[in-house]
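Bench notes, afternoon.
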Amino acid sequence: MDNMNSVWGFIGVIVFACGIYAIYSFIKMRSTGDINASLLLGKDYTYKKCKNKDAYIQKAGPALLVFGLVAFVYGIIDIIHCYVYPMATADMVGMIVFFVVLVWFAVYTTKLKKEYF
């Protein structure tokens, strides 16, 4: 059972780091106007081909921030659950919310790519 908890704890650390990276990318995108291709676009798109960069940033920015905050919070909950104090219900609710937001983020940003690229 300890091996299983360490695997889940490692996933929590990855989700936590992803949340920090998404929040950092949101702040950088708002301050410099650079679109984070790895989180928002993928390898088939380049930010230079964007039809309206400012409008894209206005629409994609809040989604990126929501995703980052949810990933950050769920990562903290999962790390606490696996390494500090077991709280299975909070961890399960956090995981469900995280996956719902992850799917929403993927669908929403895909629609934005089709609209602006």
